[in-house]
Every structure is written in structure tokens, then in C-alpha cells.
Write a structure and sequence with these properties.
47% helix; 21 helices; alpha/beta; 575 residues; two-stranded antiparallel sheet; Rossmann fold
Length: 575
């Protein structure tokens, strides 16, 4: 009956539906809109408030992955309460995106002042080392002696981050307040330092970390060295440890929110809308970094392509691959991924990752490789975001800072710290050494190759020249100057003695000199070979004597045969 009346009245079904909808109060529509938006934001921001409520605000359990026979877990990590408890995020930051965003905007870092040291690497690049000593927090004059045994932690920041980042300051202040010394090794071109060479850092550039750690170990030989890498800095640290194996002075390390596999991370960050937002934001940061060093990058890379880059991949295509000479972006990602180096890590290593990290996906975590290595303990939490892990109602603490420092402190108190072997002699240098810059070389008497430059002898010990750290003047060349003075004194003595001799004595000495020169020419190659073997192989003199005997046996046998053959011929002729 109604349908026939509606049709008779000339109203269509759509008009009837619109009239019925108009009869619903506006408040109902507002509530429905709020509900839809809330569901969308809950899913889009990956909120976990409901999950926290259902768990009674106890937080998610920390899951540990390790080798069943790992002494690092049973003797060190098992004593860390943070690794065997739960992590509960700050209630009003119950989202990985909110945590990451809050860390980038504010982070509530502690207030303190670094002491800066400018370190010059072998290729001419400059690195800012920012120090915070335990004594600095006590209003005392910071000073590190060469015989100081206070542990020192080297911090490697993430992509486009430096020592001023909120999470870095949280970490540095927490460790220094517990009595250890900390130094932040900023990447090249960051921390307010200009690019002074044609080398730039990237996600797999381990040369700077290697040289800084080598310098610190040489400068403070009795100081236990620890290393903590964050984000892309964690990828660099793990890759460095895998490259070095046993040959590193690092006693223990921690990796925080490492991307692990850069190729998988590249695919992940361009998959969803929210990840693409992060991708563009990081690309903007990289372009800002490039703009600071435009004079150098415009000469080395595709500057027009850099300016148009809208993603990390495009920036790497126009900048990183060109400067670092990688064939393709995928080649760069594959070669610089730390997941390929996990199996060779020989240092106690704690790895922390959040499973909801919006930048570093859980798909890239090398679960099996970490489980197979007895030196690695992998800790994962359901929540935490990227380098955030805020705790408490005021978000004043970062959970991973306490967990990493607790692990390193427990490792320091144990007997499982890594110690570099005394006979390790492999010296790593930058890809562009001073020898590469010089067209000529000298072959020294002991077989060493030294560059011939206009600047004099090159500095090959990796230590900076004329820098001051906490009142300690770091200068080079003292030993060389003393050696030259001693040599000069001996030369003067020799000249004075020669001036007092008679002509006959002078003639005899001249003959002796000619004889000694010829003898020196014969012995010099053998002496050079012995010096090389002694320096590089560290063998005993008896082994060298054995080698010399074996290698010279054909010559000695031939001489003996000729000698005895003549003796045997004479008796036969007499008969």
C-alpha cells in the first residue's frame, strides 16, 4: 500500500531513503563519524591501548633469542632484570608512530654540555668526537689519563643524527651518571663539522668507526672499550664487528633498532602510506644534509638529481652510489647490510628491536643467524617504535637505554669480555690513504714502503695531530725528533773521529769501507727478508734460522759438492 502511494506521489526510493536519513538526529551521525575515525586512526597509528588494558597494563614480555649453549646469555644476560621483564609504553604514547614522532619533536633529553675533539682521519676527513666524562657531572675538571681503566663507551648515532639528538643524550647521560665515560662519534658532515675530504658516510661505511676505535684503544690501552650503535649506526657497528671478527679491541657492544637488511628495509618503507611518509621525511633530512655540503657534493655527485629526490632510494641513487662507486642501489643495499656479517661477530653483542618499528621491519631481523652465534643475544619487544621505548607517565625514560647499559655493566663485571689477541697485527686503513695520494714511494731498508710527499712523513698511526681532549695535548713527532737528534749525535761523533786519523789510517779505513759496502750489499736483501718475517709473522729466531737453512741448502750443497770433488780428484791423480 505504501509503495503504491509513494509511486503514486511521484517519490523515488532514493528520495524516501534521504527523507528517512534526515529524520535521524545529527548527534547520531557525529557519534558514528567519531567511531569510524577512531577505528581508522587506531589501525593507521597502530595503537595498542586496548591491548595494554586487556593485559592489565603489565606491558609486553621481552622475548630473547640466543644459542642454547651461549655463555653470554647464561653468565651475563641472565643477570639483567630488564631483559627478563616486560616493557609497558607510556599510556598516552601507546603507538609506534606517536613514540617515534614524540622522540623526534621533543624526547625530553637531559641537559648537559659535551667537550668536543676534532679528529682527522687518514683521508683528510674530519670527525667530531663529543665527550661526556663521569667527572663532568660532578662539576670536576674532566681528565682521562693514559693509564685510566674506567670503561669507555663509543656511541654511533643514526641516519642524519648527531650527539644533539634526544635519544643520544638520554643514553650518554645515563651511562655517564653511572660512572663510565662516553664519547659520541658523529658521522662526517654532522655535528656542525664541514666535509674536508671527498668521502661521505653511508649505511655500511665502517672505516670511520674502525679508525676511531683503533685510536681510542691506542690512546687509552688499559680502558675497556664498549660500543653502542643506534639505527643505521647499529648497522655500521654490527658490520664492523663482523668484518673484524676477533681482531677488535671492543670488549662488548649493543645494537639498537638496526635495519639489518637494507634491501628488505627499502621494500618495506615504500609499501604502505604511513611508511612512505617516513620515507619522504627521511629524504628531506638527507637533502638538508646534502645542502650543507653542496660545494663538495655538487662536484662529486648528481646535484640536480639530489635536489629532486623524494625518497631515500632516489637520494642513494644520485648521491651514495655515485660517491661510493656502487653499481646500483640494490648493490649498495646488499653489500652494506649487517645481516650478512652476523655470523662472524666474536664480541658479546646485545641486539634490541621493537616488532612494531615503523622504519626497521621485523622481516629483516636475522633470527636464525643470531640464534646460531653464541656471542649474540637478541631481545625483541612487541612495542617501542623506532629508538623510542618511552616509559612512565611523563615519558622521561627510554627502556632500551637502561637495558643496554645494564647488559654492558653486567658484562664488565663478568669474565666474558672480549679481549683482542696480543699477536693480532692486521692494520686497517681508509680506502684513500696517504700512499694513494702520492705518485712516488720509497723502499726503506727494512722493506717498508713509505710515500714521498711534499709534506714530509705521513701520519699512519691514526691519531690526530695537535688536538686537545680534556686538557691532554695530543701531538705527534716527538719520538721522531728524538730519534733524529740521537742519529745526529752519532754522526757527529763519527765525523770527529774520522778527522783525527792519519792518512794511512784513512786509506785503510777507505778500503775497509769499500769492503763493508760490498758486504752490506750482499747481506742487505737477507736482512730485509728476515726483518719482514720478524715484524709481520712474529716467529722465533730459531724458526727463522730453520727457514734460512732450508732455503739456502741448495746453494750450500752445490758449494760442498764442488769443494769435495776437487779434494777427491787430487788423490786420484796422485795415484
Amino acid at each position: 500500500m505504501l509503495d503504491s502511494q509513494a509511486v503514486a506521489g511521484g517519490e523515488s526510493p532514493a528520495e524516501l531513503l534521504f527523507r528517512a536519513a534526515a529524520m535521524v538526529p545529527a548527534e547520531r551521525y557525529a557519534l558514528a563519524a567519531i567511531a569510524v575515525v577512531s577505528v581508522f586512526l587506531y589501525r593507521f597509528l597502530e595503537l595498542h591501548v586496548i591491548g595494554d588494558v586487556l593485559r592489565g597494563f603489565r606491558g609486553g614480555r621481552v622475548e630473547l633469542t640466543f644459542h642454547p649453549a651461549s655463555e653470554i646469555y647464561h653468565r651475563v644476560a641472565s643477570k639483567c632484570r630488564s631483559l627478563h621483564g616486560r616493557y609497558l609504553a607510556t599510556p598516552w604514547l601507546a603507538s609506534p608512530h606517536l613514540q617515534t614522532l614524540f622522540l623526534g619533536i621533543s624526547g625530553r633529553p637531559p641537559s648537559f654540555t659535551y667537550k668536543r675533539q676534532l679528529y682527522t682521519v687518514r683521508d683528510g676527513g674530519t670527525i667530531a668526537l663529543d665527550w661526556l666524562l663521569a667527572s663532568d657531572l660532578e662539576d670536576a675538571d674532566g681528565f682521562i689519563s693514559k693509564d685510566d681503566s674506567t670503561p669507555l663507551v663509543v656511541v654511533v648515532p643514526g641516519l642524519t643524527s648527531d650527539s644533539a639528538a634526544a635519544y643520544v643524550k638520554h643514553l650518554v647521560y645515563s651511562i655517564a651518571s653511572k660512572g663510565w665515560n662516553v664519547v659520541v662519534s658523529n658521522h662526517r658532515g654532522l655535528g656542525g663539522v664541514s666535509i674536508t675530504s671527498d668521502c661521505f658516510y653511508n649505511g655500511g661505511w665502517t672505516e670511520d668507526v674502525r679508525e676511531v676505535i683503533k685510536y681510542l684503544h691506542h690512546r687509552y690501552p688499559k680502558t675497556p672499550l664498549f660500543c653502542i650503535g643506534t639505527s643505521i649506526g647499529a648497522n655500521i657497528v654490527v658490520k664492523y664487528l663482523g668484518e673484524e671478527g676477533e681482531n677488535t679491541p671492543v670488549a662488548g657492544a649493543a645494537s639498537i633498532c638496526s635495519p639489518w637488511d637494507l634491501l628488505i628495509g627499502d621494500r618495506f618503507i615504500s609499501r604502505k602510506l604511513v611508511q612512505r611518509i617516513y620515507d619522504k621525511a627521511l629524504a628531506i633530512g638527507l637533502k638538508g644534509y646534502a645542502k650543507l655540503h653542496q660545494p663538495v657534493l655538487a662536484r662529486l655527485a648528481n646535484w640536480e638529481g639530489i635536489k629532486k629526490s623524494r625518497s631515500i632510494r632516489e637520494f642513494d641513487h644520485h648521491a651514495t652510489c655515485v660517491v661510493a662507486s656502487y653499481e646500483t642501489v640494490d648493490t649498495y643495499y646488499r653489500r652494506c647490510s649487517s645481516a650478512s656479517f652476523v655470523g662472524n661477530v666474536s664480541v658479546p653483542l646485545l641486539c634490541i628491536n621493537a616488532l612494531d618499528d615503523p622504519l626497521c621491519t621485523r622481516e629483516a631481523i636475522p633470527w636464525d643467524e643470531c640464534r646460531a652465534n653464541k656471542n649474540i643475544v637478541l631481545a625483541t619487544t612487541p612495542n617501542g617504535g623506532h629508538l623510542a621505548f618511552f616509559q612512565g607517565l611523563t615519558a622521561g625514560r627510554l627502556w632500551w637505554v637502561g637495558a643496554a647499559s645494564e647488559f654492558l655493566f653486567a658484562l664488565h663485571e663478568s669474565s666474558y669480555m672480549h679481549w683482542q689477541k696480543a699477536n693480532d697485527h692486521v692494520l686497517h686503513s681508509s680506502l684513500e690513504s696517504s700512499i694513494d695520494k702520492s705518485p712516488y714511494v720509497n723502499i726503506m731498508e727494512d722493506g717498508m714502503v713509505a710515500p714521498v710527499t711534499k709534506d714530509g712523513p705521513s701520519n699512519n698511526d691514526g691519531s690526530p695531530s695537535d688536538h686537545e681532549v680534556d686538557g691532554v695535548q695530543l701531538s705527534n713527532g716527538v719520538g721522531d725528533r728524538q730519534q733524529l737528534e740521537v742519529s745526529g749525535e752519532k754522526h757527529n761523533e763519527h765525523v770527529s773521529e774520522a778527522g783525527n786519523e792519519s792518512p794511512a789510517g784513512s786509506a785503510n779505513r777507505q778500503g775497509d769501507d769499500i769492503y763493508s759496502n760490498k758486504l752490506h750489499e750482499i747481506i742487505a736483501p737477507v736482512k730485509r727478508s728476515i726483518n719482514q718475517l720478524t715484524r709481520h709473522q712474529g716467529r722465533s729466531i730459531w724458526l727463522l734460522a730453520y727457514i734460512a737453512f732450508v732455503t739456502s741448502w741448495p746453494l750450500l750443497g752445490s758449494l760442498a759438492f764442488i769443494t769435495f770433488r776437487k779434494k777427491f780428484r787430487n788423490p786420484l791423480r796422485a795415484k
